[in-house]
Each structure stands twice: as C-alpha cells, then as structure tokens.
Amino acid sequence: MQLHISPSMRSITISSNNGLTDLMKIKVAARHISYRTLFHTILIVAFLLPFVFILTALVTLEGANKCSSFDCFGRRFGPRFLGRVDDSGKLVRDFYKIFNQVITEEIPDGLKLPDSFSQLVAEMKNNQYDAKTFAFSLRAMMEKLEREIRESKASELMNRHFAASSIPKGIHCFSLRLTDEYSSNAHARRQLPSPELLPVLSNNSYHHFVLSTDNILAASVVVTSVVRSSLEPEKVVFHVITDKKTYAGMHSWFALNPVASIIVEVKGIHQFDWLTRENVPVLEAIESHHDFRNYYHGNHIAGANLSNTTPRSFASKLQARSPKYISLLNHLRIYLPELFPDLDKVVFLDDDVVIQRDLSPLWEIDLQGKVNGAIETCKGEDEWVMSKYFKNYFNFSHPLISKHLDPDECAWAYGMNIFDLRAWRKTNIRETYHFWLKELQEGSDLSTF
C-alpha cells in the first residue's frame, strides 16, 4: 500500500505495492484548500486505510476460497451483520423430508449393511452415497439391531425359563440320598403322621393345606414358611402329595426333619387306589399326544412372532407353556373332592410360594356357594406380578375356544387357591374338565404364538 502526494499538494493517490493499480485518488481544489482541510482529509484517509487493507486481502484470497469478496467478508464478520441467513435449518428440513420418504418405502434388495456406524461413514465417503442411500442404510442397520436385541432378549428369557423349570444337579442328588435313606433307615420310614394323629387328617376344625409337588426342598420351604407365619400352628395340617419316584425321598425328609407343632401327611399318587389311568384316560392322552408334547417340550421360539411380542408377554407365554402343566401332579387339583372325601375346605398351595403372614383368615371367607377363591393376575400396581390372560394359555384359532372364551379375560393365580369342597361336590366340574380336554386334543395345533 503506497500513499502519493503531488508536489503542488493538489492531489493524493493511494495505490497497491506494485504501483500498477490505483485504489483511490483524491483531488484538491487549488483555490479553496487550506492546511486545516488537508489535515482533516489525511486523518480520514488514515482511518480508512485498515478497512482498505482488509478488502485487499480478501480480494487476494478470493481464488482460494472460491467466494466473492463481500461473501468472504461476510463469513468473517457474521452472516447476520451482512444479511446472510444460516442454511443449517434448511439442511435439517431436507433430512426430515428424506427420512419420511425412506420410512414409507421398501428397503432395496441386496443393500449391503455395514457392521458399525463408523464403517457406514467410511463407505459413504468412498462410494459417494447420496442422502437417500445413506438414510436407507441407516434405517436397515437400526432394524437389524432391533431384531438382534429382541432375539437376544427372547433367548435370555428362554434360558431363564429352562433354568427355572429344570432340576439342579444338587437337588437331584439330594433326592437320591433321601431315597437311599428311606431304604436303609427305619426312622425315615416311620408312619406320617403317627397312628394316634390319623383322625386329625379328616377333622374339619383344623386348617388343611394341600401341596402337590415332586420338589422336596421346595415342599420344605412352603411348609416351614406356613408354620412360621401361622398364629395357631397347632391347627395346621399339611397333605403333601408327590409322584412315585419322589415318594421315598419326600417321606424321608419329613420323617427325619419333623416340623414342630404341625401335622404332615406324605402320600404318593400310587397310594390312591382309584387314581389310575383307566379312571382318568384324558391324562394319559395328554401326555402321549404329539401336539401336546411338542407344545410343552418343543422349541418355544420356532414360529414365534418376536417382532409383535414384548419381553413381558413372551415371558408370560413361556411360563404358560411349562411342561409341568401336563404333569399328573398339576392335574391333581381337579380331583381334590375325591382325594379328600371327608374335608369341607382346603387351601391348595404351589411349591414356588413363600408364606409371609398368617393364613387362618382364609377359612373365615364365605365363598357364597362358589367353588374356588383366587386372586386375579391382571389387576393391581405391582410391576413384578406377571399379568396373565386366557390368550396366554389357549389357542384362540380353535373354533371351540374362540366361541366360548374371551382372550382378554384375566386368569387367576394358581399359587394359592381356597376350595370349598362341599360346593364342588354339587357340580360336574370334573366331567366338564374331561370333556373339554378331550375336545381340544383332537386335531388342533396348540401353538399360541
């Protein structure tokens, strides 16, 4: 930048360093100029020089930045100062438009999906993806990850289900040791209860509990928790029913480890003379029928629509498909009036409950002629209680089921039921139960998924 003042003081010229370009030239009238005016003029020019320098620098860099001088100048001093608008909002709106379009369209066949987001960005740079292709790849990746998460969650629930329904090795060996004790130890074979207490087994002034299980340790927990929570343990009578293979071990446990203050009876299914497969033909059919066995023992994930099933719903269905539901021990509750012909009221407990309060008030409940008193599983605010509906247990594609049952009807908790056996004996519940089981086993796939 050079400043030239003519000898006559009549003109002032501002030029570039090479002297070839005149940036500004000021002429001063000879007759009217004064030294004061000249001083003020030079002062103004000196004030403008920094701005002229900046403008010159922008012109020099114009080729490198590929923008006009005023545009580059605006970038440095802010878009609002020079009236320019930030276009990032427009970019976001364009992305919204593309994403909305991609959601409604099918993902192209053969679209190669990267394994990670960083790989997606790298492929986008290398292959020069347009925005739509990028959006399709991103959507396909997210859907793939969602499927993998659902499948992993389902596998986790499956493993948890199998772990909960199987018998650990320690408990299996525990049962074997007690069975051996029954064969070699006279104390393990002693009569339960002792002969002088046998009349109590049919005395309705006592509180009679029924427990049907082949799990010795679980039976011990249930019995012990009832006794510890009871305000009148001397009035408690437990009827423990088990299968033939577990009977010796179950009898040994309660014979060698008597629970103070209560009366325990241990009986095996084989000890009920009338409870034979000839008298209960439907149970034999259930255990041998291919569709039933495949439904309860087959692959629970195969054919399952995991995309429309929440983990909570899937867990409910797994629990409903537990193999224990085709066990004879599970079906024993339908024969309670015949198993205990002298009793008027019993409380039936599952082997997976722990009693934490006194249950004697249950015998004071007036069922008003109804047979079963239970708790529904679809009401209440306890998030840990699994909601169970009829649709979790029945296949509503079967015309008989869809005609007579409501899929959204709430099931009841099986863990603790109070039965009025007097009212039960006035009904034909057992015959109706046999009829429906026989109807349902004839020619239908039981899958509810």
Automatic annotation (TrEMBL):
<dbReference type="InterPro" id="IPR029044">
    <property type="entry name" value="Nucleotide-diphossugar_trans"/>
</dbReference>
<keyword id="KW-0472">Membrane</keyword>
<dbReference type="GO" id="GO:0071555">
    <property type="term" value="P:cell wall organization"/>
</dbReference>
<comment type="pathway">
    <text>Glycan metabolism; pectin biosynthesis.</text>
</comment>
<protein>
    <recommendedName>
        <fullName>Hexosyltransferase</fullName>
        <ecNumber>2.4.1.-</ecNumber>
    </recommendedName>
</protein>
<dbReference type="InterPro" id="IPR002495">
    <property type="entry name" value="Glyco_trans_8"/>
</dbReference>
<dbReference type="GO" id="GO:0047262">
    <property type="term" value="F:polygalacturonate 4-alpha-galacturonosyltransferase activity"/>
</dbReference>
<dbReference type="GO" id="GO:0045489">
    <property type="term" value="P:pectin biosynthetic process"/>
</dbReference>
<dbReference type="Pfam" id="PF01501">
    <property type="entry name" value="Glyco_transf_8"/>
</dbReference>
<comment type="similarity">
    <text>Belongs to the glycosyltransferase 8 family.</text>
</comment>
<keyword id="KW-0961">Cell wall biogenesis/degradation</keyword>
<keyword id="KW-1133">Transmembrane helix</keyword>
<feature type="transmembrane region" description="Helical">
    <location>
        <begin position="37"/>
        <end position="61"/>
    </location>
</feature>
<keyword id="KW-0328">Glycosyltransferase</keyword>
<keyword id="KW-0808">Transferase</keyword>
<keyword id="KW-0812">Transmembrane</keyword>
<keyword id="KW-0333">Golgi apparatus</keyword>
<dbReference type="GO" id="GO:0000139">
    <property type="term" value="C:Golgi membrane"/>
</dbReference>
<dbReference type="InterPro" id="IPR029993">
    <property type="entry name" value="GAUT"/>
</dbReference>
